[in-house]
Amino acid sequence: MAAASICMTCDVERTLIGIKPVRNRHDMQQYECPNCRDIFRLVVQRAPFDPDDLVFEEAPRQTGTR
Q: For 6-54, where are the E strands, in sequence order?
């Protein structure tokens, strides 16, 4: 969303500083202005979960002698 990323006071791009889950499959995104430190909060619907998107990787095994 373009409006959330621009500070209305300073006219600079805000930085995403946090995402927190809220009720009914929604997330609250928090944006902060790097100049005036104003916080903008935006509630958005969470993307649907697709188990096919999960990727599992094995940790590298250590080889060596004891």
A: 15-22, 26-32, 39-45
